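Input chain follows. Return structure tokens only.
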Amino acid sequence: MEAVTTPLAAPSPVPLDLGLYRELQRYGARDVSACFSCGTCTASCPLSQTDATFPRRIIRYAQLGMKDAVLSSKELWACYQCGTCAETCPTRADPSEFMAATRRYAIASYDRTRIARTMYTQPVLATVLAVVVALLFAAFMYAAHGPQSGETLAVFEFIPGHLIHDMGIAVMAIVVLAGLAGIATMARRIGRREDVGWGDVLGSRAALARSARAAWSAVGRESLGQAQFRAECDTGQEATPWYRRRGLVHALTVWGFLGLLAATVLDYGLDILGIKATGTPVPVWYPVRLLGTLAGIALVYGTSVLAIDRYRAANRAVTRSTTADWMLLGLLWVTGVTGFVLELALYLPGAPAWGYWMFLLHVAVAMELVLLAPFMKLAHAVYRPVALFYVALAKEAKP
């Protein structure tokens, strides 16, 4: 009796995009054709695990045109761009900057509006767009302005508080929708590549427990606490003063932004509850005011140091800066500084007229910062936790 043999199915061809490498260069990637996959970058990377080969693997994907593999790689977002791989690369291919450019490309790819693509690849148009958006916000609010009078600075009579509130809700709705669309695209790609479905995340009590631990690791320890960033990616800075070290400066910037956002939300909440009208001068030790003041100090200090280091190229992690990088730092810095100047105007006697214009500038820039968040580097705050969730979930699944 003859044995019946079943021919093996041919593997599905991997779709290749031969223009991927050139496309990544539009997002700031340097020429990594010198990379011959020696593995030095992987060996020196503080975040590489025994089963991980990034950044070498991401570079190889790009060289071969494996677009889907690039966009579905969770390791892409695990990189904190510490610069160690760039220092140790024997051919000076600068894997660190390549990873940063690839993340910009990923943000633009997840975005269906093409705004992120414009922000990263057309710097002149992006700058014009940012200025126009700020002017539109300012013009819209000024069209409804009230009188500039009184012994105290009545900013919410100059620009009606309900107008700012409604505009803020509309901006947040746009941001949430854009963010959710990007997260869904990213999660679907990574989940398909990692063979992780809803059942693996929520399908059983054990799955829920694993997912909860992975979520805490991604959001609590890494995104908010930045444990791995400080422990492993802040090395090699022994000669740098503690107050200039990258881990501290990055943490102050992140917590400053989140603190100001929380203070704004709490201030509106107190207004709704009838406890304190928004914009009412209160002592500096008033809880919400104190939170906003400390957060503002952290944000201004963090962004100032980051901007100085970028300008001097003094940090091994940052050797090149894009227009979008400068735009984000500028918006964060202006938001923090105008907030302090506005706070000063609120406590000065005589209701200085410039305080009203400072308020208009502060709100317009803050609104623009939030609106453009999903399309700039600030989108890392959303995409990185999702990728780190899959990283932690993979570790939870190991025996």
